[in-house]
């Protein structure tokens, strides 16, 4: 009987399921606007968290529909890999695994493997490990070495960290304007008018005092603050706004600091392949790498300003497809299955650096 493998990428805004045959050929891809983030609210109306049962329902239905779409509705999956947002801890991973096996969808698969979405993204790009950089609404980074050892930097959320994230850019724009306009408490070296107008429009406020109502009131949403990043990028790129360019350069520096922090933990074998250390970039902030580049290079000592480079050669990549493929590969590997996944076609080069 043919062995079918499935991969699931579950995030805070949508869920993707990919069904493969034993030769890692994609048979079906299913997407849903339903969240499968374990701790996400169902909507912006602060409804209850999705929870384990909600995740199982969303994922199970997509797997069922995916098998039907692939023309193998009665087949049993050899293994299902799930790369899920909100399951960072082993306890949550086991809870979701057991809940799926005990549900009506359990008989669909011989085995289940659950990990977080960052791991799924990493293995969609690199078969033996590398670095994953996350810079979307929040930020995080993960190094996985060939021996399976892993090290994380970041991922502390918007209250404690998220440096280099979309939220951090939006927050920096607010703080730069606030410091300058608050009787010059912290004067900006650049004009703030354009940035302040953009902040007011995005947050739906009219004056400085309205910041208190927004940030401490019931209407606060970190995603809205993160949305300021898009406007900052536009002002920097199209209008040459110096304040916005500085904010984005600082963002690039903070993203680079994640790599710098992990560099000493990198297994030497990961530095010897073509392109040096592979670094996967995930998240909308990387769409503006042209604005991040200077700060990123500075953080790694690769800007030619005299600092010793942290790494002599490295390559930034972005994914061409869902992390569902990566978690399918990893799940098949852990199940002892041959799964010839095409890593080269799954990613594209964003930037390559090689020192003198």
Automatic annotation (TrEMBL):
Residues 7-288 form the ATPase BadF/BadG/BcrA/BcrD type domain. It holds the Pfam family BcrAD_BadFG. It comes from Notodromas monacha. Its EC number is 2.7.1.59. The lineage of its organism: Eukaryota, Metazoa, Ecdysozoa, Arthropoda, Crustacea. Belongs to the eukaryotic-type N-acetylglucosamine kinase family. It comes from the Eukaryota. InterPro entries: ATPase_BadF (IPR002731), ATPase_NBD (IPR043129), NAGK-like (IPR039758). GO terms for molecular function: N-acetylglucosamine kinase activity. PANTHER family: BADF TYPE ATPASE DOMAIN-CONTAINING PROTEIN, N-ACETYL-D-GLUCOSAMINE KINASE. This is N-acetyl-D-glucosamine kinase.
